[in-house]
């Protein structure tokens, strides 16, 4: 077995046996699957507590007209406001809603009394309910039928389809955006995470003087490459496990939470269970149905995403981006005596990576723009930006050009890092400047 292979094996086995690696390998897919499932679940869940509102209506216009729902109940009362405030019991009612007699002309005079700070959802729900009823009253005085206006309102929901040589496929801009951003964020995080591990590993070996013993057996460049490749394999192993576990959890969750029949049964059971006790709010039910249908549409459009291509490209751009930046991180570790000295060298190297993450926000809006094209082929930004573009469809020429330039960028940065590494790894007690690093590039020997 070659010396580089021994170093790779040591770096790999040392890290995959750590408890932190095992824990993050298990927690990572759960967190990633949560990103898919939680938003749709939370959109349909705002708590199970029923909030009861005592209504003091001096105008007499809202008697029997304030429609609540399964979570909000309006209880009309004829007592005066002072008596209502004096007898207010937080255990029975969550708030007192006071509607003055001149409410039509002065909506700002409505008051809501609570025993604690009210949440924004409660205030918003009450405002919408009263607003709708006042609008209905104004429409009636002008002879306008509210039902006719409701019939005129139309919801437009455009279904997108992709035309290819193989036929038509359902697509989803939302799904492409989600997949692109997740891939971009993961590469951004992985490069930082594993690049920092390379740098810390080099600094640790240098400060403990272990590197002096290792260098007596292997060349500095072999040590650097073994460390970089070994940690790259750790990241690749974790990523593959994440993909398998995330897809498994997401598939199970999509079947449980986003099955059409299950959703319809849940909505019907909820309506049946609550219908005899509390008034219903059809608008909220329709909103829940829209959210559920939207979630179903997103999951049904997954066939439009070429996941084998996405996964293959992710592995390539992760490895290419990591090797490019990992070599530079290794060079920084070799040039300094401690992590406190790395700041002056870290910033110029990480700026392109941070810039690529910032640019990704604009790329999502227009993945075919010139900005997206150039940043997806420049080696220092292409790993993040290209992965953001990929779910929307990227020309083969763009991918090939980006891949070739990334490989060339890795070779170039590895050459630079190797020149710095061989000199700096055995240098102690000296504060290195950018000018000194420039000289190391041209040392012979």
Structural description of this entry:
With 445 residues, the chain is of the alpha/beta class. The protein folds into 2 domains: 3-39 and 169-258 and 302-440, no CATH class; 51-152, 3-Layer(aba) Sandwich (D-Maltodextrin-Binding Protein, domain 2), CATH 3.40.190. Helix content is 66%, strand content 7%. It has 16 helices and 6 strands. It has helices at 3-16, 19-43, 81-86, 120-141, 146-152, 173-207, 210-215, 220-257, 260-275, 282-300, 307-335, 343-365, 370-377, 382-389, 396-424, 434-440, and strands at residues 51-57, 72-77, 95-99, 111-114, 160-164, 167-171. Strands 2-1-3-4 form a 4-stranded mixed beta sheet. A two-stranded antiparallel sheet has the order 5-6. β5 (160-164) and β6 (167-171) form a beta hairpin. α6 (173-207) runs parallel beside α11 (307-335), α6 (173-207) packs antiparallel against α14 (382-389) and α11 runs antiparallel to α14 (382-389). It is elongated, with a radius of gyration of 31 Å. Residues 273-292 have low confidence and may be disordered.
Strand order of the largest sheet: 2-1-3-4
- Residue share in β-strands: 5-15%
Distance between the termini: 27 Å
Mean of residue pLDDT? 79
Gyration radius from CA atoms, angstroms: 31 Å
Number of helices: 16
Total discrete domains: 2
Give the fraction of residues assigned to helices: 55-70%
Classification by helices and strands: alpha/beta
**What characteristic shape results from the CA principal axes?**
elongated
User: Count of DSSP E strands?
Assistant: 6
Could you give a short account of the major beta sheet?
4 strands, mixed
Following the backbone from N to C, one meets helices and strands in this order, namely HHEEHEEHHEEHHHHHHHHHHH
- Ranges where pLDDT stays below 50 over 5 or more residues in a row are 273-292
């Amino acid at each position: 077995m070659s010396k580089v292979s021994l170093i790779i094996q040591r770096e790999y086995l040392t890290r995959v046996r750590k408890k932190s690696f095992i824990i993050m390998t298990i927690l990572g897919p759960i967190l990633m699957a949560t990103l898919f499932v939680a938003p749709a679940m939370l959109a349909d869940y705002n708590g199970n507590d029923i909030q009861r509102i005592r209504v003091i209506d001096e105008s007499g216009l809202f008697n029997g007209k304030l429609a609540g729902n399964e979570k909000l109940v309006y209880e009309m009362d004829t007592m005066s406001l002072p008596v209502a405030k004096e007898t207010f019991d937080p255990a029975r009612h969550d708030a007192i809603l006071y509607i003055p007699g001149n409410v039509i002309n002065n909506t700002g005079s409505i008051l809501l009394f609570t025993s604690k700070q009210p949440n924004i959802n409660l205030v918003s729900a009450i405002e919408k309910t009263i607003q709708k009823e006042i609008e209905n009253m104004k429409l009636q005085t002008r002879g306008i039928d509210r039902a006719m206006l409701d019939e005129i309102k139309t919801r437009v929901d455009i279904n997108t389809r992709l035309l290819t040589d193989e036929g038509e496929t359902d697509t989803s801009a939302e799904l492409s955006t989600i997949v692109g951003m997740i891939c971009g964020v993961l590469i951004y995080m992985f490069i930082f995470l594993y690049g920092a591990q390379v740098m810390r590993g080099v600094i640790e070996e240098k400060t403990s003087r272990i590197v002096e013993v290792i260098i007596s057996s292997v060349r500095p460049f072999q040590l650097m490459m073994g460390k970089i490749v070994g940690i790259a394999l750790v990241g690749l192993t974790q990523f593959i496990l994440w993909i398998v576990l995330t897809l498994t959890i997401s598939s199970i969750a999509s079947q449980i939470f986003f099955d059409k029949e299950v959703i319809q049964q849940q909505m019907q059971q909820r309506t049946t269970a609550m219908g005899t006790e509390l008034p219903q709010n059809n608008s909220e039910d329709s909103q829940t149905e829209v959210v559920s249908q939207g979630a179903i549409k997103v999951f049904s459009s997954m066939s439009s995403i070429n996941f084998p291509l996405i996964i293959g490209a992710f592995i390539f751009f992760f490895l290419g981006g990591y090797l490019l930046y990992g070599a530079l991180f290794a060079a920084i570790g070799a040039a300094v005596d401690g992590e406190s000295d790395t700041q002056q060298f870290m910033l110029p190297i990480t700026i392109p990576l941070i810039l690529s993450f910032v640019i990704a926000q604009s790329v999502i809006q227009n993945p075919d723009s010139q900005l997206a094209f150039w940043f997806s082929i420049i080696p220092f930004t292409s790993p993040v930006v290209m992965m953001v573009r990929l779910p929307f469809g990227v020309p083969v020429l763009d991918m090939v050009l980006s891949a070739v330039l990334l490989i060339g960028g890795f070779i170039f940065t590895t050459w630079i890092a190797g020149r710095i590494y061989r000199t700096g790894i055995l240098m102690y007690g000296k504060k290195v400047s950018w000018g000194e690093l420039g000289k190391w590039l041209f040392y012979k020997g």
